[in-house]
Inverse folding.
């Protein structure tokens, strides 16, 4: 029993990451990461608006099976149209280094929320594949959660800083 407690304590100690991860300056990103993130960004912009297009996006080689399974039958194009209208632009504003993954954070400009902060982000792993995606929008009464922002792609509570 004592060994189990030591094991559990060690696991919890090493499993907890830092409270804030370092950010990578945009001008110091490696060229492969920049090229892959631009491909993902452009494909999302091009393919997000129809069911067939979004299915093509999530079945791309750079999407991991876990993300693919979550989004394959999700109705994301309708959700985006309903919540955001048309996406006018996506601009990379921050890259967070979480060790094995980098979180690419983009600010969206949309037709329905021109003055509000909306974020599209994804984690990209060391093989340059998408391991997680988020679309964070202001709550505005959409959720009973007492949070300012919610993640439309997940039941996770969105914790973000602008």
């Amino acid at each position: 029993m004592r060994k189990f407690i030591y094991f559990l304590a060690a696991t919890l100690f090493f499993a907890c990451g830092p409270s804030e991860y370092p950010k990578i300056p945009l001008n110091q990103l490696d060229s492969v990461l920049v090229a892959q993130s631009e491909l993902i960004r452009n494909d999302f912009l091009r393919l997000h608006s129809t069911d067939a297009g979004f299915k093509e996006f999530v079945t791309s080689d750079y999407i991991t099976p876990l993300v693919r399974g979550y989004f394959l039958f999700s109705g994301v194009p309708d959700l985006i149209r309903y919540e955001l209208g048309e996406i006018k632009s996506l601009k990379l504003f921050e890259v967070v280094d979480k060790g094995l993954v980098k979180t690419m954070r983009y600010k969206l400009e949309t037709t329905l929320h021109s003055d509000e902060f909306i974020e599209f982000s994804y984690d990209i792993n060391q093989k340059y594949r998408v391991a997680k995606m988020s679309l964070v929008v202001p709550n505005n009464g959409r959720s009973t959660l007492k949070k300012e922002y919610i993640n439309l792609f997940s039941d996770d509570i969105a914790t973000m800083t602008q």
Notes: The radius of gyration is 17 Å. Residues 21-151 form a domain with the Nuclear Transport Factor 2; Chain: A, fold (CATH 3.10.450). The helical segments are 2-15, 31-47, 51-58, 65-71, 76-84. The longest strand covers residues 87-97.
